[in-house]
Amino acid sequence: MSSEPSIFFSDVNERQGSFLRRTFVVGGLTAIGVTALTVRLAQLQVVQAQEYTTLASLNQFNFRLIPPPRGRILDRNGVVIAGNRPSFRVLVVRDETKDLDQTLDLLGRLLPDTLDRRRTIIREVNAAPRFSPVPVKSDLTWEEFAKVNIYAPELPGVMADMNEARYYPHTGAFAHVIGYVAKVSDRDIKAIRDRGEQPPQIMFNPGFRIGRTGVEKALDAQLRGEAGGKRVEVDARGRVVAEDVGGSRPAVPGAEVILTLDADIQNRALEVFGEEAGSCVVMDVRTGDILAMVSSPSFDPNLFVSGVPTRTYRALADYERRPLTDKAIDGTFAPGSTFKPAVGLAALRRGVSPDRRITCTGGYYLGRRFACLGRHGSLDMRNALKASCNVYFMTLGVEMGPDAIAASARDLGLGQIFDIGIDGQKRGLVPDTKWRRDNPVRGDGKWYPGETPSYSIGQGALNVNALQLAVYTSRIANGRKAVTPRLIKSIGGVEQAHAATFEDLPFDADLVKVMRDGMEAVTDVGGTGFRNSQLGLGPVRMAGKTGTAQARNYGSGSRKGSGRPWQDKDHNLFICYAPTDNPRYAISVIVQHGGLGGGTAGAPRAREVMRTTLLKDPEIRARIEHAGFEAEAPEPTPLAEDGPIDQAPAETAAPAAPTAETGPRPYQPGPQ
Fold it and tell me: Which residue windows does the record flag with biased composition (Low complexity) (predicted)?
């Protein structure tokens, strides 16, 4: 039989001492804990009471940023060319939905087109900050807006509201110069961080837009404004239960920007291009203000505000006439015969008399034959410009060499980048012997005499853009000052810097007058631009210069545009100014692959734009009416595809391989 184990203490006092020790330890620990708890409670409720009251209030209220209205962009007469309009939209808050997929399914029944963007919507919702409303669809019709509001109680996390969306009322007329806004991308955020800056919190708001191109991009910081905020009361799950109006602050609209452009002239300039590709720039020759800067074909920038569909973007990007490229500043072309005044001024500056006569027998010979437009006989400089005689200017060019020509061209504004407030300009190229040394042909850095004849008539490696041609024409028309262009008139009511006094041209005014005499003769009877340059405005006449630039080497084939593919036709150019007796406005027009003859496609378009420009001027209009003429549009002249040319005709032989006499084969310019 087993017995229970027993514990025996040899001394009763020992058992009592052990019990007392345990009681003392437990009691002490309890007292310490109660004391610490009391001290901590006292600290929280007395010492830190205000701090935790503030934290509790912050947890109760959220501050949600509100994108500010973007600043408007106006033309010189106050016409809105980029503004804001009300837009109904539907939004989703991810953290307030029980099931995002189910919510989008139900929303898709109300707005079927959201199903096509479902993947994009999910990506944007998941990337948004917590409790941030994400636009699912903008520009809802009133019926769609009402439908969403009716079913909103059954769609947790879905709401519909009205906001301000960027709007371009003139659609494509200002698309390139004004640009457009678009959603903030990861690359935008990364670019800011790469500069060592912290992106503003508003940039993470799904409804915020930034300038992507043109003026919208260049002045984005000024146009943005300051974000506002709505202070809302939320429950424990972060859902909005009320708004604290007193704690909210309104958004501050962006600065208003006024440009030097004129909406009427800009719209007319795009209109006259029709389906043709090219560019047009209009300048005030006295102030340098740009009144129009158009690139054709254009596109509707409103498509990009909410996000252009990939299919639409690809159609624009792949079209051969490049509607997304700003041809006014980014497209460079050989100037053709519009370059001859620069060659003439270079010769006059070197002491050549404008009355010097050179006999044209139909071709210029330097190792090979460079053909002219015809057999012009004996010509002085004014008549050489009128007839656009290649032989005359080739003769002068070979005598001077490329460096003298290049210096004159740069003084007139070619090969320059101008500070007009937007980027994207191409400098183009005004070549000289130094350029050839830096850019040898097959290791040969020598400029050969055989390259100069083509250079002297605006071909070869030479290329310019429409803005440079407008500045070039303005300086010739002004005659005394090196006019520089200005596009941005004021920002937020502050007038922008403007050259009150331009630098003097490095040419004697009488020499420039010779060029103007020749350009006036171009639009007179017998001139290469006569037929399509008549304004029909009585005493107000226009002077100009035609130009044709080869798009490819034709060899011994015909250069006539009829029947040729569009991309094989020559570029068609025209520069002009008016009135001839007191120049005020200058225009450059480039019609890309417009066909043979600078007076056939460029001149009639420049004429129509010049008419609009002149009739917008009250003084000139009063002069026309005082002379007893009605300011009515003349009978339209058909835009002939082919006409009198002002470059080497088709029978010119293709350049041979480089020799010691002719040098490298001349560059055949094409669309840049």
Answer: 648-662
Q: How many residues are given for the chain?
A: 672
Please report the sign of the dihedral spanned by the C-alpha atoms of residue 554, residue 558, residue 559, residue 563.
negative
Q: Angle formed by the axes of helices 402-411 and 340-349, to 10°?
A: 110
Which runs of consecutive H residues, i.e. helices, occur in 132-172? Answer: 142-151
- Is the full-model pTM beyond 0.90? no
Q: Tell me, what DSSP letter sits at residue 181?
A: E
Could you tell me which of 500, 509, 431 has the C-alpha nearest to residue 475? Answer: 509
Tokens 């019990």 locate to: 19
User: Which tokens go with 523?
Assistant: 């639009």
- Determine the residue type at 286: R
The three-state secondary structure class of 337 is helix
User: How far is it, in rounded angstroms, from Cα 461 to Cα 111?
Assistant: 56
* Single-letter code of the amino acid located at 295: S
The sign one gets for the Cα dihedral 529, 531, 533, 539 is: positive
User: In which element (H, E) is residue 229 found?
Assistant: strand 228-234
Q: Mean pLDDT throughout 413-425?
A: 94
**Strands 369-371 and 228-234, how do they pair?**
unpaired
The pair phi, psi for residue 516, each rounded to 5°, is -65, -40
Q: How confident is the model at residue 641 (pLDDT cuts 50, 70, 90)?
A: very low
Amino acid at 586: A
Close Cβ partners of 667 (under 8 Å, ≥ 6 residues apart)? 459, 460, 461
The C-alpha atoms of residue 371 and residue 369 are separated, in whole angstroms, by 6
**Residue at 609: amino acid letter:** V
The burial class, CB within 10 Å (0-12 / 13-18 / 19+), for 401 is middle
Number of H helices, E strands in the chain: 22, 21
Q: For helices 340-349 and 509-522, what crossing angle results, to 10°? A: 150
Helices in 78-170 by DSSP H: which ranges? 100-110, 118-127, 142-151
3-state secondary structure of 476: helix
Tokens of 221: 């910081």
What is the DSSP track for 586-621?
Answer: EEEEEEET--S-TTTTHHHHHHHHHHHHHHT-HHHH
Bridge pairing between strands 158-167 and 585-592? unpaired
Cα–Cα dist 466/404, whole Å: 23
- Of 95, 62, 72, 66, give the one whose Cα is nearest residue 208: 66
**C-alpha dihedral over 230, 234, 240, 246, to 10 degrees?**
-30
| Rounded Cα–Cα distance for residues 294 and 329 (Å) | 10
- The Cβ-side half-sphere exposure at 543, using a 13 Å CA radius, reads 27
Domains and CATH numbers, the chain: 63-259 (3.90.1310.10), 263-298+322-489+499-626 (3.40.710.10)
The span from the CA of 326 to the CA of 425, in Å, is: 9
Provide the 8-state DSSP code for 43.
I
Residue with tokens 């409670």, as numbered in its chain: 41
Short-list 671, 15, 70, 661, CA closest to 369:
661
Count of Cβ atoms closer than 10 Å to residue 223 Cβ: 28
- DSSP tag of 129: P
The mean pLDDT of 210-220, rounded to a whole number, is 94
Mean pLDDT of 131-157: 82
Distances (CA, A) of 279 to 101, 333, 558, 587: 49, 11, 26, 11
d(CA 378, CA 358): 5
The predicted-structure confidence for 178-197, as pLDDT tens digits, reads as follows 999 998 888 888 988 898 98
Maximum alpha-carbon separation in the chain? 151
pLDDT, tens only, 107-125 = 888 888 888 788 888 888 8
Distance CA 68, CA 369 (A): 66
